[in-house]
């Protein structure tokens, strides 16, 4: 049955790709937040680079996660990230972009009908909020955010998930969790956008959604047979951290959608927050009586990158440092106190990405300044004496948490009804590299 379904999907995609001739015509149609392109070659060049940098983060994540799992699960874990680049890219072109940035349906989701197969996604028009770069470049930049989000989730159910079930979950997650959150947060007609929620590069859309989905997956799949395994390659973790940190400059500075002062500010806050968080993590480890470890420094840096993501273009450099330190301390404590005997979040995705994203969202409401970004307006952060923005961020945090966890858990339930999510005990003991892919290190 699986062979028949896959054959039908491939044939259908091929036929639609070949015969949908009008989709290949670059339409200059304006309206629905699509405007005339005011091409700036500097902005365009930077955004091409930023798009490539964000894509690099996903294989970086593969190394980061792959080094943490046991030796018999390295290939499968890394392949989960790689296949996100494959599946989500195709899904994005076919329907995902339209769901996120198509004409709004009630402020909740986009209407994909006008952008199926990138219909109307032209190199000669522009998105309203990015008028100096081609619309197609904006769409491809956003695709890289969609790619890495389900890949982040995989760390929670590492070493026990069936690969084909994961692929199905990934598709459903993009359609029913990522797309609504992206539309609500970043579309001018989105519900959160109109509320005044500030999320510069993905605190809600990427990290909170992935964190809560990870927790749902860890609960639904249950514990591994052996929860404590030695990391296969700590050098992979260091390499992955470096690639993530490097790519994150595209993630955050690229979200300025231009090569200007805001991009420079976001780049600065990003690297400072990561460094401060890595320092905070290893210093706290030492205070608590642990050794200063490569794993700790790597995880701390990534937590800082997560936490600064929603705030990157709204806060000062010193406040970015504070965000990094606060987030790393909180995430470190959550990791140490997390009930691992009951909930097996294998690589602490919720504690790092989920909690880090939530801390970043709230601290955006504390430190956001109109001196850094005029879009903040009069509702500045709590530290400037106005609680309005902080309360808006808190409200969004609660709504996103409930939505992401509930829908993700439902999707795990549905996928498990279609095809079992979890490998058998025998295959888990053998290792996913051999049992799922017939390969080994």
Automatic annotation (TrEMBL):
Family: Belongs to the ammonia transporter channel (TC 1.A.11.2) family.
Main location: membrane
Name this protein carries in UniProt: Ammonium transporter
Organism: Flavobacterium taihuense
Keywords: Ammonia transport, Membrane, Transmembrane, Transmembrane helix, Transport
Localization per Swiss-Prot or TrEMBL: Cell membrane
Domain Ammonium transporter AmtB-like: 45-440
Keyword hit for Transcription: no
Entry membrane topology: Multi-pass membrane protein
UniProt-listed InterPro entries: Ammonium_transpt, Ammonium_transpt_CS, NH4_transpt_AmtB-like_dom
Annotated transmembrane regions: 5-25, 45-70, 82-109, 129-151, 163-181, 201-222, 234-251, 263-284, 291-311, 317-335, 347-369, 389-415
Pfam families: Ammonium_transp
């Amino acid at each position: 049955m699986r062979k028949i379904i896959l054959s039908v999907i491939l044939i259908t995609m091929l036929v639609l790709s070949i015969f949908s001739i009008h989709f290949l015509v670059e339409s200059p149609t304006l309206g629905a937040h699509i405007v005339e392109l005011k091409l700036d070659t500097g902005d365009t060049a930077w955004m091409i680079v930023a798009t490539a940098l964000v894509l690099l983060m996903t294989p970086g994540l593969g190394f980061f996660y792959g080094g943490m799992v046991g030796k018999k699960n390295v290939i499968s874990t890394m392949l989960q990230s790689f296949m996100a680049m494959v599946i989500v890219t195709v899904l994005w072109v076919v329907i995902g972009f339209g769901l996120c940035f198509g004409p709004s349906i009630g402020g909740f989701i986009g209407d994909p009908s006008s952008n199926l197969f990138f219909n109307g996604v032209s190199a000669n028009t522009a998105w309203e909020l990015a008028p100096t770069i081609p619309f197609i470049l904006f769409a491809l930049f956003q695709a890289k955010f969609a790619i890495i989000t389900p890949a982040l989730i995989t760390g929670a159910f590492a070493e026990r998930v069936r690969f084909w079930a994961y692929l199905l979950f990934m598709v459903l997650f993009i359609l029913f969790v990522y797309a609504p959150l992206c539309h609500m947060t970043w579309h001018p007609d989105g519900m959160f956008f109109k509320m005044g929620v500030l999320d510069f590069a993905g605190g809600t859309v990427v990290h909170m959604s992935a964190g809560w989905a990870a927790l749902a997956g860890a609960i639904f799949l249950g514990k591994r047979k052996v929860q404590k395994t030695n990391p296969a390659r700590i050098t992979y973790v260091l390499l992955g951290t470096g690639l993530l940190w490097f790519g994150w400059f595209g993630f955050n500075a690229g979200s300025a959608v231009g090569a200007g002062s805001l991009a420079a500010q976001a780049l600065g806050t990003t690297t400072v927050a990561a460094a401060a968080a890595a320092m905070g993590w290893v210093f706290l480890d030492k205070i608590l009586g642990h050794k200063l470890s490569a794993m700790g420094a790597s995880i701390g840096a990534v937590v800082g990158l997560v936490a600064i993501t929603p705030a990157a273009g709204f806060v000062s450099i010193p406040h970015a440092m504070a965000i990094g330190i606060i987030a790393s301390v909180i995430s470190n404590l959550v990791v140490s106190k997390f009930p691992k005997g009951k909930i097996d979040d294998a690589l602490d995705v919720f504690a790092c990405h989920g909690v880090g994203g939530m801390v970043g969202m709230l601290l955006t409401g504390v430190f956001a300044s109109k001196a850094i970004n005029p879009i903040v307006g009069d509702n500045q952060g709590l530290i400037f004496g106005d609680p309005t923005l902080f309360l808006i961020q808190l409200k969004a945090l609660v709504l996103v948490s409930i939505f992401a966890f509930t829908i993700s858990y439902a999707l795990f339930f549905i996928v498990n009804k279609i095809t079992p999510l979890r490998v058998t005990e025998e295959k888990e003991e053998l290792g996913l590299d051999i049992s799922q892919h017939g390969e080994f290190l």
